[in-house]
């Protein structure tokens, strides 16, 4: 579904991604594990058209998406939930969700998906008229995910969905990630919480200073001593 080959991405002179390659197959949850500054967010931004690689190729559904505009990429079915759960604070929950569907014209489909988002996140339904800026951190993360779902993505890019959330809320968010995947959305998940990420993912890539240094099934990585020491708290 997604094939990234040898991409180099720069911020001015800073070489953030160095010949990075990875693949995501339809139906999978793939997770990217790596320390702060490894380049995970840079990769997601590149996939969603916010940054352009200097070299290398990115194919999505067998078509090159390098150089395409962000809204064209959303229309093609890639939806990005950025780090820090950015919601439009002065708009209601419902208005934020409607915005997620801005590129769609199928009114019936939009209504159906709105009902589905409310079913998945009952809390958002309770608060649908509330201003988004007054939601709790966990609720804002739900809203950011709900808004991305409203774009009807085939591939969902999730950047650190557990960041700053209490443990119970982290579990809820990961359960929902699994549900969204079971309903047919492929997921590329960036996470600091490697334990949780590997417990829901099919496969994983470890990224260090802009390069993939290890990849395999989630089970293989969970069993690797190096990974245990570096990312799973040494247990
Ligand atoms: P984190 O988990 O801390 O967000 P990350 O793996 O997502 O880390 P990136 O944010 O992709 O890492 O950053 C990769 C590298 O690019 C880092 O060295 C970072 O300092 C650099 N970088 C990121 N954004 C910019 C920017 N706008 N300008 C210059 N350098 C940047």
TrEMBL record:
Protein name per Swiss-Prot or TrEMBL: ABC transporter ATP-binding protein
ABC transporter domain mapped to chain residues: 2-234
Domain of life: Bacteria
Signal peptide: none
UniProt entry keywords in alphabetical sequence: Amino-acid transport, ATP-binding, Nucleotide-binding, Transport
Keyword Ion transport: no
InterPro entries per record: AAA+_ATPase, ABC_branched_ATPase_LivF/BraG, ABC_transporter-like_ATP-bd, ABC_transporter-like_CS, BCAA_Transport_ATP-bd_LivF, P-loop_NTPase
Family as reported in the entry's similarity comment: Belongs to the ABC transporter superfamily.
GO terms for MF: ATP binding
């Amino acid at each position: 579904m997604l094939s990234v080959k040898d991409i180099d991405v720069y911020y001015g002179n800073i070489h953030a991604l160095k010949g990075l390659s990875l693949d995501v197959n339809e139906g999978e949850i793939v997770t990217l594990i790596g320390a702060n500054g490894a380049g995970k967010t840079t990769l997601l931004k590149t996939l969603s058209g916010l940054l352009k690689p200097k070299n290398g190729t990115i194919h999505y559904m067998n078509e090159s998406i390098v150089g395409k505009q962000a809204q064209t990429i959303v229309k093609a079915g890639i939806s990005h939930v950025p780090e820090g759960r950015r919601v439009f604070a002065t708009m209601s929950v419902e208005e934020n969700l409607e915005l997620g569907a801005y590129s769609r014209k199928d009114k019936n489909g939009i209504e159906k998906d709105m009902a589905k988002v409310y079913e998945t996140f009952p809390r958002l339904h309770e608060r649908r008229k509330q201003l988004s800026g007054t939601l709790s951190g966990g609720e804002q993360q739900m809203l950011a995910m709900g808004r991305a779902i409203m774009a009807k993505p085939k591939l969902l890019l999730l950047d650190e969905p557990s960041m700053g959330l209490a443990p119970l809320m982290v579990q809820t968010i990961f359960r929902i990630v699994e549900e969204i995947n079971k309903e047919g959305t492929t997921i590329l998940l960036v996470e600091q919480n490697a334990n949780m990420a590997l417990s829901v993912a099919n496969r994983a890539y470890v990224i260090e200073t802009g390069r993939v240094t290890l990849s395999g099934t989630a089970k293989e990585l969970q069993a690797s001593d190096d990974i245990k020491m570096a990312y799973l708290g040494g247990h």
